[in-house]
Design goal:
The protein has 460 residues and is of the alpha/beta class. The chain has three domains: 56 residues, OB fold (Dihydrolipoamide Acetyltransferase, E2P); 194 residues, Vaccinia Virus protein VP39 (Rossmann fold, 3-Layer(aba) Sandwich); 141 residues, OB fold (Dihydrolipoamide Acetyltransferase, E2P) (Beta Barrel), CATH 2.40.50. Helix content is 25%, strand content 30%. The strands form four sheets. A seven-stranded mixed sheet has the order 9-8-7-10-11-12-13, with helices on one face. A seven-stranded mixed sheet has the order 18-17-16-19-20-22-21, with helices on both faces. The longest helix is centred in the N-terminal third of the chain and has 19 residues.
Length: 460
């Protein structure tokens, strides 16, 4: 039997003509040079490009575009002036319909290749207008040519691309970012330098309530006091009348973590209030809240549809964060338990329950894989488990527990098709079947795809 011939490795510095056939998870175009997988930034499927090889690894190469020979029919001019440098978006140069098709295909490929599941996702639900959807911006602060800059990190680095505008941020965040930049420069507050570990101001975080058009700004500093606080508050509130809260977060650690452990309100209100459907949610400086409230309502409505509650069910919302999904279902359930490992998020969830007069909810601080078995061993009724884990997916111990308890219905909300498919494969091998998969585009112009999956226990 003939051995497969290994592809001839491309040479660093050499030039090649490449047809782009796919995107990788970072949004880089994928092509082949001598049948060797090559990643090429700023390209999309259908492009024909001349490239120069910049790097060769064991299983892939990287190249840079020298010349665009033939445009993909899905290529457009990016509406963002810094899209080639800024790490915030990956797909500004790709038609939105093509973005949706690619994301839907990514979900289906993950289900089939990783999950080994014979199931197709429903057509992805996109946005009517895929711009200005983000309700939060985390803006690092730095210095360039002796001038203070704020913006976003350059792709693959911690260098800052100076902020001028951003067409995925809510317009009030843009207005605030411009004003903050002006005030910081005038007051000459020293920016923190990651390399020298000197300076004061590390990040500026801006949050907005879509429904109330109100703003919160959080200044993250290395110092215990906010430098020139009175002047900062006075000038910023004069420039941005929609601003209702200014907070100070203290982070003296030389780490990549944005927020430190201590946050205090230095002016104005403690919370923003925003709505999802008929519910109000309090957003504190450090609390988690979905960044795209328009698509979040669509996502939660799909969860509610899949849950199909009658008022008699006991629901467990695991990795519940500030309790938004559980609270969204509470009016149609007998009881909702939320489990979250972060104590601050649990406090926010309890506050949100009171805000919405939900008296049939209970939020527990702990790891889901520890909490669920303790309650289940008491014979407590469990009709539905909702899983909304971080990108790394569910802990294997939790999946084992769910399988052992034979929970009749599961709803899995995922922001990572790869770990979703892995976890669905385990559950499918342990007594569950996938009923429906619904992708929702929560993050237009990026490669991220969100999914809601309904699973049911297979009857013996």
């Amino acid at each position: 039997m003939k051995q497969a011939t290994k592809p001839l490795l491309p040479g660093v510095g050499n030039y090649y003509t490449v047809k782009i056939t796919d995107l990788n998870s970072n949004g880089e175009g994928v092509g082949r040079v001598n049948d060797f997988v090559t990643f090429i930034p700023e390209t999309i499927p259908g492009d024909l490009v001349e490239i120069q090889i910049s790097e060769v690894k064991k299983s892939f190469a990287r190249g840079v575009v020298i010349r665009l020979i033939e445009n993909s029919p899905d290529r457009i001019c990016a509406s963002c002036a810094v899209s080639k440098n800024c790490g915030g978006c990956q797909l500004q140069h790709m038609e939105y319909k093509a973005q949706l098709n690619w994301k839907e295909n990514q979900v289906n490929q993950a289900l089939q290749r990783i999950g080994k599941l014979d199931v197709l996702a429903s057509p992805i639900i996109g946005m009517e207008t895929p711009n200005y959807y983000r309700n939060k911006a985390q803006l690092p602060v730095g210095v360039k040519d002796d001038t203070l800059i704020i913006g976003f990190y350059r792709k693959g680095t911690h260098d800052i691309v100076d902020y001028t505008s951003c067409n995925i941020l809510h317009p009030l965040i843009h207005k605030t970012a411009v004003a903050v930049k002006e005030v910081l420069a005038e007051l000459e507050i020293p920016a923190y330098n990651r390399r020298t570990k000197q300076g004061i101001l590390r990040h500026v975080i801006v949050r907005v309530s879509f429904t109330q058009a109100k703003l919160m700004v959080i200044f993250v500093t290395t110092t215990k006091t906010l430098v020139k606080q009175e002047l900062l508050v006075e000038q910023l509130t004069n420039l941005v009348p929609e601003l209702v809260s200014i907070a100070h977060n203290i982070n003296p650690r030389s780490s990549k973590t944005i927020l430190g452990r201590e946050t205090k309100i230095v002016w104005g209100e403690s919370y923003l209030i925003d709505t999802i459907g008929q519910l109000e949610f309090a957003i504190s400086p450090a609390s988690f809240f979905q960044v795209n409230p328009i698509q979040t309502e669509i996502l939660y409505d799909k969860v509610k549809e899949y849950a199909n509650l009658s008022g008699r069910e006991v629901v467990w919302d695991l990795y519940c964060g500030t309790g938004s999904i559980g609270l969204y279902l509470a009016s149609e359930a007998k009881k909702v338990y939320g489990v979250e490992s972060l104590a601050a998020a649990v406090l926010d969830a309890e506050y949100n329950a009171k805000l919405n007069k939900r008296t049939n909810t209970e939020f527990i601080c702990g790891r889901a894989e520890d909490v669920l078995p303790k309650y289940a061993d008491t014979g407590e009724q469990i009709d539905l488990v909702i899983l909304d884990p971080p990108r790394q997916g569910c802990e294997s111990a939790l999946l084992e527990t769910i399988s052992r308890l034979e929970v009749p219905k599961l709803i899995y909300v995922s922001c990572n098709p790869t770990t979703l498919a892995r976890d669905l494969a385990y559950l499918s091998a342990h007594g569950y079947q996938v009923e429906q998969v619904q992708p929702v585009d929560m993050f237009p112009m990026t490669t991220h795809a969100e999914c809601v999956v309904l699973m049911s226990r297979v009857k013996d």
